Amino acid sequence: MKKLLAAGVFLCSVFMAAGLKPAQAGEMDLLLQKLVDKGVLTGAEAQQIKIETQEQVKKEIATGKSASLPAWVQNIKLKGDMRLRYQTKVEKTTGDASKDTNIGRVRLRLGLEGKINEKLFAGVGIASGSGDPRSTNISFGGYNSKKTVVLDYAYAKYSPLPWLKLIGGKMLLNDTLWEPTDLIWDTDITPEGAVLQFNKNLGPNTNLYLNTGALIVDTDTSSDNDAPMAYLIQPGVNYKFNDRLSLNGAFSLQSFQNVKGHTSSSYSSATNTGNTTAGTSSYADDYRMINPALELSIKEPFKAFGLDVESLKLYGEYVNNLAVSSGASGFSCGFKLGNSKIDKWGDWNVKYVYAMLERDAVLDVLPDSDRYGGKTGMRSHEIELQFGLAKNTFIGFDVYRSWSIIGAKAPETLVQVDWNMKF
Prior knowledge:
Layout: H1 2-18, H2 26-37, H3 43-62, H4 71-74, E1 76-90, E2 101-115, E3 120-128, E4 138-139, E5 149-161, E6 164-170, E7 192-201, E8 206-216, E9 229-240, E10 245-257, E11 287-299, E12 311-321, E13 329-338, E14 348-357, E15 378-390, E16 393-404, E17 412-422
Helix pairs in contact: 1-3, 2-3
């Protein structure tokens, strides 16, 4: 053991001083072979030292403590994913296929994250897309035309205290507020503005948090008296009952001001909320939405029955727009069963969500764009199955069945088959 330890320390010192990375293993192999030839080490001991030395170098690089690489290189992380999709949408009455659509799509996202110093963190990401804030998909077609890439997010995160963070820029949605479903916010939206996050542990089982901030909804122009803005506050608590059971609950107020009288966005739904005609007229109301939300997480929910299932999550949301007197509420409820993450072959999960939004419940540029085209005034069932094919790649099947609750309109069925790859 002393011989192995001495040799390992010697090799680590040599390779750290030489500035070598794990991939540059030729010199290490030569040195270890000489020690084997001289009888200092056995072949098995040499192999063990090689593995341990490489792991130590990797660990130091990952934690930013390696002397072999500049600090800025160690503090930057590249991440990304690509998704290939086949999608079919059926919005027809019986026997009428004139409105059916079948398309292929691709989504590509790349991100860089970097630790500037001990208190400052920054991230920037690009994605495929046309500029639609609710979609980073690009549809195939167009006579082999080139596809566009846009800025997806660019933000800075400052942590002056362990329990306080200030985030500004074009942010990730998860850094803005907590939402168990996409009832109100499409998950592709990257809000713009500034947010304060407070996060404090009260003992080993209780975590209190608060998200609050201001978001820029639209650019200030000479044609507007005041640019539309959104202000939000969301207190919440995450309580751990035991090692297997926890509850996350939050209550948010999301106030969209100066929206009334403002021209609706070109990304509003085609039939919208009843207050506007998409892209050509003005909103009739502002939106002051209250939004309680809950998520109950159960680890190994069927352990008593001998079934190996990693987790079960039960969740629900409610929303009500206080700025209008009728047609102003909505809710979602559902579950997610299986693996929390799909990392390897055989991992799986299944998700179900029922959602309903009355026509004035939320601002129409926010909800999930796949659920009835992102429209309000609808109800919808969604069921999704994901299955791991290998490390960092999985396939997904997602089906929406949606109806309008405003007048007599044909139901819509949307089926998506995805091949996901992460790196």
